Description:
Helix content: 55-70%
Order of helices and strands: HHHHHHEEHEHEHHEHHEHHHHHH
Number of helices: 18
Structural class: mainly alpha
Distance between the termini: 55 Å
Radius of gyration: 31 Å
Strand order of the largest sheet: 1-2
Shape: elongated
Largest sheet: 2 strands, antiparallel
Oligomer: single chain
Bound molecules: arginine
Amino acid sequence: MHVKLWEGRFTQETDELMERFNRSFDFDRRLYAADIQGSMAYAKALARAGIVTADERDLLLDGLSQVRDEFEEGTFQPAPSDEDIHTAVERRLRELIGPVAGKLHTGRSRNDQVVTDVRIYLMEHLDRLDGLLTGLQGAIVEQAEDQLDLLMPGYTHLQRAQPVRFSHWMLSYFWMLQRDRERLHDARRRIPVCPLGSGALAGHSLGIDREFLARELGFQAISENSIDAVSDRDFILEVLSGGAILGMHLSRLAEDITLYASAEFGFVELNEAYSTGSSLMPQKKNPDSAELMRGKAGRLVGNLVSLLVTAKGLPAAYDKDLQEDKEPLFDTLDALELMLPVAAGMIRTMRVNPGRMRAALDDSLLATDLADYLVRKGVPFRRAHNIVGRAVRYGIEEGKSLRELSSAEWRRLSPLFEADVVDVFDFERSVEQKSSPGGTARSAVEAQIAGARELMAT
Ligand code: ARG
C-alpha cells in the first residue's frame, strides 16, 4: 500500500487498522520545527564526516527549509504513509530534492531523533511557561499591593481562625508559584543534553561529531550512554511532575476563589470577562474560569501518572510504548499555557468586597489574642487557652459575643482580665501584632511584596 521505511524486509502490507494504531503524525506534527532543526544540524555533521559532499549538504539544507516553510505556511500536504513527523519530513524532502534525501538518515535512528526533537521543543516551551508563571505572579502581587489595608478571616479547616490581611492570603499563592518556577527551572537544567548520534541504541560508526551536533542545536552537553539516551523519558516526567504540582496549586487558588465568590462569602467578585451565565437560570454568573482551572488540574495529575505507568515496566532500550509520552506532555503544556494567562486575567480583574470581609470578622477570631493577653501576664499558655475556651463557651451559652462580656464577667473568668481587655477587640491591632517575618502585619506583608518583586525580576 504505502511505501515504508522498512519495506526491504517485509513482503506483506501493514493492516489498515494497524496503520492507524501505529500512526503518531497527528499529534507529533507539532515537532516539525524541532525535527527540521535537528535534521539540518545532522546534515552539517554528515558533511563534516565526509558522508555527504558540501553540495549535497546544501541541497539537504535547502530542501529542509522548504519543508519547514510548508509547515509554517500551512501548505504541507500529509501523505497516508506519514507515520510520524520524522517520516513525513523525510518523505517530503525526497519529493523535493530526490534521492540525496536518502542520505540524511545515515547513522541516525528515529529513536535518537525523536528524543532530540522533544528536548528541543521543551526548551522553548519551558521558557514560555516561565514567562506565564511570572505573569500570574505579577497579577497576584498587584492585587496584594492594592488591598494592603483589607482584613478578612483566615481559615483553618475552613473554620474562622484568626484575622489576616487579604494581601497575605493572596501572596501565599505567589510563593507556591515561585517554587513551581524553581521546580521547572530545575527540570529545564537537565534538558539541554543532546542524544543525537546515539543511533538506534548502540552509537554510530561513521565519525559523526556529537559535540558539534550539541553545539549546533544549543545543547550544553552530549548524553553519556546511548542506551540511556534513546530511552530516557525522566526529563519529560520531571516536567509532568512540575506541571501536576503547579496544577494542584492553581486548583487550590481556584477553589478559594470559587468559595469566596459565592453569595455566602461574597469576598470577591469575578469580572464578567472570566465568568459565564446559565442557559436556564437568568440570575447566574458562574466562576467557570476558576472551576475549569480546578478541573484541568486533574488532567495534569493524570498525565504524570499515565507516563509513569507506561515507562515503569519497559525493557532497555527504546520501545514503541514510548511513543505514548507525547500526548500527555503536549496536553500538560497546552493546558498550562491557557490556565496561567487565564488565572492572571481572572486575578487582575477580580474585584474585592471590603464590606463583606469586614462583616465576616467576628470576635471568635480574637480568642487566641485573648489567650496571648493572659500569657503576657504570666499565665502558662495551656491554662490561658482553657480560660478563654471557657469564655467562648460562656458567650455561646449566654448568647453574647466576646466583646459583649462585662468586666465583671471577665473578672469572674480570671482576675487577670482587667479593664484593658477591651483593647484586644481590635482586628487591626491583632493583625499588626503578627509582625514576625512572614506574618500578616503590614510591615511583614510589605517585606514579602518587596521580596516577591525581586524574585519576579530574576
Ligand atoms: N514515533 C516514534 C515515537 O514517537 C518515533 C520513534 C520510532 N522508532 C521506531 N523504532 N519505530 O516514539
